[in-house]
């Protein structure tokens, strides 16, 4: 039997500082997609990790008066800790200081050298340590990089990658693979950038030493972006099967600021060593905090760990993905978090589950009732529930995570409308047949909502499914998406536990 494989990655995070909400956001999006794909029958590899070399990190370590290796060991741990706090389900965590990565990158360098993609020259131009990026004279605005980062003039011997030779091949690749860069507007930006002409890029530095040494020329360290991008492959390098199954990667999720590295440099690097480029790169937008750019100097950095402590992990996960269309910029406002959670999770989903299960527990001997004949309205809510599964699947496959959540929430609204109209409480003790059919239809709808929410808010979704009396071990394993069909509908007579409130109001 062959399985479909799915490989998804986050960027690897610079360990110059503690993780903030932006880092949590990128990994969260990947986590939801990875969880969803697993439930949908894929063998998933979900990779994240830390980017630990380069001048920026060397500088931060020096500022903290700590040896770079000790410094990166400490900070890498704080990124690992975030994974647990946010309930992320990564299958691997790569650090660029690990031997499997260093050896791999050295091998890549040699391959690029042997295939004449690298030559020795001299670099003179601007360098922004914050961005770990080179800028030309035309890029500089008011003495700064276009990103606002400070720049320094650099003149040093450097190895170059012949990026200029890949311009036509890249354009052809974008044309042949219209889904390679998403969202669409980002794809257009990249294409016009490449059409404007590509220059060879400097890929080694001699003015500091914290990095992977250039094989046979150790006064050079390999440019941190060349080093870092290859994490997506070095993580597969210990096992040939992994490489065969997972490459080309299905999806790199990144922030919009690092799109050029991923959509221009990365496929060119890969083509230069005869490897296929990834299938898709999705660039998401940036968060601001109460309308302001998030920055350390403004003192408005949002600590995801603190936020989780304050409101709980599922509320943070829900809000971040629901609040802004994935791909757009968005603003974090505490009031919006509170009102969304209260309206959509507490009042909509929580209330629905509570209303239905309370009647079943109290008035139906705590057993899932046996339905009788379904009315047109019962059939409508049932059909809508099953149909939404395909809709959500297709939204996730396009990385429209906000839409997928909206679809699930809309099912909750529909069910609340149905319950108000059918008013099952009025049938208690009067019309058992009709009461049972209505409750059964609602339980099915709740079951589908629970299955679909597993990827987004795993703890709460499990609670929904437990509350329906589904066995604990099955819920813990994850209920596959294929169970969200009528042929797997819930068994009548199944006992439910005493219903407990799912969500508490903020
Ligand atoms: N180390 C590189 C990536 C190398 S990948 C081969 C890097 N690291 S980073 O730590 O600076 O940023 C990692 C990710 O966090 C990026 O995708 C970036 O867009 C994201 N975010 C940083 N701040 C953010 C916000 N304020 N909002 C949303 N995401 C942001 O770049």
Summarize the SSE layout with pairings:
Layout: E1 5-14, H1 21-39, E2 43-51, H2 55-63, H3 68-85, E3 92-95, H4 99-114, E4 118-128, E5 133-135, E6 152-161, H5 167-176, E7 181-182, H6 184-195, E8 201-202, E9 204-205, E10 213-214, E11 217-222, H7 224-229, H8 231-234, H9 240-246, E12 251-255, H10 259-272, E13 281-284, E14 287-289, E15 292-293, H11 304-311, H12 313-323, E16 330-332, H13 334-363, H14 376-397, H15 401-422, H16 432-453, H17 458-467, H18 472-477
Parallel strand pairs: 1-2, 1-12, 2-3, 7-13, 12-13, 14-16
Antiparallel strand pairs: 4-5, 4-6, 6-8, 9-11, 10-11, 14-15
Helix pairs in contact: 5-6, 11-12, 12-13, 12-15, 13-15, 13-16, 14-15, 14-16, 15-16, 16-17
Bound molecules: 5'-O-[(L-methionyl)-sulphamoyl]adenosine.
5'-O-[(L-methionyl)-sulphamoyl]adenosine is lined by residues 11-14, 22-23, 25-26, 51, 228-229, 231, 254-255, 257-258, 286-287, 294.
